[in-house]
Design goal:
557 residues; TIM Barrel; Double Stranded RNA Binding Domain; 18% strand; elongated
Length: 557
């Protein structure tokens, strides 16, 4: 273990990552990510290819206005064209116009590509590599060479592949990056080729892997163990085809498992934040099972696992989740045991004797509900209420009497709208009837219910629905299938999830809505106003104004 040895981190999310078919970052997005990478202590940030598109060129203009404390900005390009001197090559000139301290260029090192793609001699290719690096080296602080397809080239024609590296080394390259461009090589091959490259050149070696064989992270680690001084990759592994090596996992593995120094130790706990930022700006749903930083990375569902981590977290966790900014979660399902329930009770702040007979009753009820189709993995609030009710600790803040929902569409070119009428029994025993119009039945029910309750509980005015999901459980039954509704709510300070289940989507939504309101009142230790005070001073949500669910108007639900 090379304890404390620094491994440079070169991020190419803003260039290679944007080649992913589902990623498109604005200039502002790219600047924001660059600032965060710099704050994390990354060494290099590859901003794009200024010769390929206007957006990348604009990024280099904007990022010059930002004061970076650590990272160096690199512009990406290619070696000069055959038959044209470097000084006359348009792409190299555009690369220099980016005015970055670092220029990274890609060149051919596989004899197959030289013959089939460039259609030039091997000698001509060596001249191109040497001339391009020598030209750049006189005009930038650092010149980095990306040896494209190096590993395929090395195992096809090792003499030529090594000769390519020597050509740029003699021209003054600061770093030579070996690329597994097609992502098809395995760790033992990476190890052998990196060692051969290190023995042949004087400058440091870097590694750049793609994930087409799903070993990009393993290949990168193998390269570091073989002597590579720099790792290249993207945040969350975004990239063309199957993606690039995931720098989040690489940094965590190198630093926590092998003792290398990649970023300042205090910054490791912000890895999850960085991961989520890139997902958010790229408009990609986070991968829940992503190692280290995924929501499920430290989630325990089986009763045996939950029991083990209560005794010692090392029984079922390879690191403490807090080290990378994640947290531990114990899930509840038909697989749960007493240990899961006791753990969750403590998580909710409920002290319960492990020998309490009600735990067994709660466990049986949980398994019955899960068997019926409920899912509490993303609905901790509903489960906490269930636990409180079974333990005799719950308080009902209002009583349900009835609800009705009307859907209307008056003209073909008019959007439909919904009206909900809700009758409840308030905490003072009086019945109230409230109506609201929404852009869907769930939206209307939400507005009507809180219109009825806000006069009693003003704290509900700050609450809103943040997300809404419907899952059809019995596909074979068509429109008669059972549905499970998951709702996420927020009051600006916290978010919580609730669940409902029914053959009727409106009824399932109502169950989740009621749980959401009850949970908010429970957590706030809400005490109702008197009926007189409520009538005179209550500020209910205005009926008739459609509310959005998850920030998007809900037109069909």
């Amino acid at each position: 273990m090379a304890v404390g040895k620094h491994i440079q981190v070169y991020d190419t999310t803003l260039r290679d990552g944007c080649q992913s078919e589902d990623v498109s970052l604005t200039v502002a997005d790219k600047v924001q990510i660059a600032q965060r990478l710099d704050d994390m202590g990354f060494d290099y940030i590859e901003g794009g290819w200024p010769g390929s598109n206007e957006r990348d060129a604009a990024f280099f203009t904007e990022v010059r206005k930002v004061r970076l404390r650590h990272a160096k900005i690199a512009a990406f390009g290619s070696t000069r064209r055959a038959g044209v001197r470097a000084a006359q090559d348009r792409n190299l000139q555009l690369l220099l116009r980016a005015e970055t301290p670092v220029a990274t260029i890609v060149g051919k090192t596989w004899d197959f590509h030289v013959r089939e793609a460039l259609r030039i001699s091997e000698a001509a290719n060596l001249e191109i590599l040497n001339d391009s690096i020598a030209y750049l080296k006189k005009r930038v602080d650092e010149a980095i060479f990306d040896a494209e397809h190096f590993f395929d080239g090395y195992f096809s024609n090792p003499e030529f592949a090594i000769a390519c590296l020597k050509a740029v080394d003699s021209a003054g390259a600061d770093i030579i990056c070996l690329c597994d461009t097609n992502g098809g090589r395995l760790p033992h091959e990476i190890d052998a080729a990196v060692k051969a490259a290190r023995a042949a050149v004087n400058c440091p070696i870097a590694i750049h892997c793609h994930n087409d064989s799903e070993v990009a992270v393993a290949n990168t680690i193998a390269a570091v163990e073989a002597g590579a001084a720099q790792v290249q990759g993207t945040i969350n592994g975004v990239g063309e085809r199957c993606g690039n090596a995931n720098l989040v996992s690489i940094i965590a593995n190198l630093q926590l498992k092998l003792g290398y120094n990649c970023i300042p130790p205090a910054k490791l706990k912000h890895l999850r934040e960085l991961s989520m930022l890139v997902y958010e700006l790229a408009n990609i749903t986070p991968f829940a099972r992503q190692p280290y930083v995924g929501r499920s990375a430290f989630a325990h569902k089986g009763g045996l696992h939950a029991s083990g981590i209560q005794r010692n977290t090392r029984t079922y966790e390879h690191i403490e989740p807090e080290l990378v900014g994640n947290d531990r979660r114990v899930l509840l399902s038909e697989l749960s045991g007493r240990a899961n329930l006791i753990y969750k009770a403590r998580e909710f702040g409920i002290e319960i004797d492990p020998a309490n007979d009600k735990i067994e009753l709660l466990l049986e009820e949980l398994k019955r509900l899960e068997g019926a189709g409920y899912a509490f993995d993303g609905a901790d609030a509903s489960f906490e209420l269930l636990m409180l009710r079974k333990l005799g600790l719950a308080k009902d803040h209002f009583g349900f009497v009835s609800f009705r929902v009307f859907d209307d569409k008056w003209h073909e070119d008019q959007a439909p709208f919904s009206e909900a009428v809700v009758v409840i029994e308030g905490p003072d025993g009086a019945r109230t009837r409230n109506a609201a119009i929404g852009n869907g039945p769930v939206n209307a029910l939400d507005s009507a219910l809180r219109s009825a309750l806000v006069p009693y509980y003003p704290n509900l005015a700050a609450m809103h629905l943040a997300d809404y999901k419907v899952r059809v459980l019995d596909n074979g039954r068509g429109t008669a299938a059972r549905v499970r509704v998951l709702i996420e709510s927020s009051d600006g300070k916290r978010r919580w999830g609730t669940v409902g289940l029914s053959d009727n989507v409106v009824e399932a939504s109502w169950q989740a809505l009621v749980d959401s309101v009850e949970y908010k009142l429970h957590k706030d230790h809400a005490r109702p106003r008197s009926r007189v005070h409520a009538k005179s001073n209550g500020a209910a949500p205005r009926a008739g104004k459609a509310r959005a669910i998850g920030g998007v108007p809900v037109k069909s639900l």
